[in-house]
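Side project, low priority. Logging it here so it doesn't get lost.
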Amino acid sequence: MVSANNAIHDFVGNPRERTQSASPEFLLFRKILRSLVREEPLITAGRRETDVVRLLALHRFLTRPQLEEFLFAESTLTPRSRQVVTWRLLGRLQRHGLVAATPRQTGGAVAGSTMPGYFLTTAGLRLASTFYPDLPARRPARRAPFLLAHSVTAADVELAFRRATRGNPGHELELWECDWQTAMKLGSKTLLPDARLVYRLGRVLIDAFVEVDLGTEGTRFFARKVDRYVTARHDGDWRTQLPRWPLTLTITPTAARAASLWDATTARLEAHPYSSGGMVFKFCAIDALLGESGVLGARWRVAGKKESSLFATPEQLAAAVDA
């Protein structure tokens, strides 16, 4: 068993030993970190600090438990050790002015949104831009209450798909792109999915856009978004970047909301029978996705169809077993 103190010692290590065995990325991180915080005390920043900066750059806001799972899901550390190391990581980055936290919210819209959310400061964003040159410029905490709930939900969705791969041979979340990464490939100035994923089942790939809906807009607003999906697909600018047009997965706060968006989407697809042919829109409540059945057992409403379906068909699941 690994104690919390031993885990922290292993993580921090001996500064001299870490410098001798450091990777070029680690040395670059430390050099940039020193220039950003404008001080010269010994900083033993390593891969985990880099991982935190990368994760916050991609997701904008994450809670401490989410960061912990992203960092240590495959680790052999005890649960207590994971917590301690994650707190230590965040504390170090906060002391150097790279990461800050929102105040604890009350009455969050989704599970987890009542917890403080961690985000990159201006200095942290400058550091992140060295890893992601295309990272869009943005204010660190702009529209924090809404963006916090949205980012936390999106991260919960990603983590749910990552959990689905564990213990299932042949399953892999091959790709998870955040909104700005996907936007660059679509070539559309009007369509901005919240994420895109590629889930591998053996030789089968399920490619999907992800929409995170918090129920804050009317169904007519979502119907207009469906129209933008239809237009973007019909325009074809995406063909140089994507092998095929992905299906669209929408995660909602409640089953009732999923039913409302299913109805609105079905109506829009029927209004564009030619240009929307072959497009697939699925809807699932977040509680079902995060429940005991998980991603692979949750039922999805499919626009234009009365029967619900699973994320993957039996044939696709069999492909993973046969791989």
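Brief comment: The chain has 14 helices and eight strands.
Revisit when time allows.
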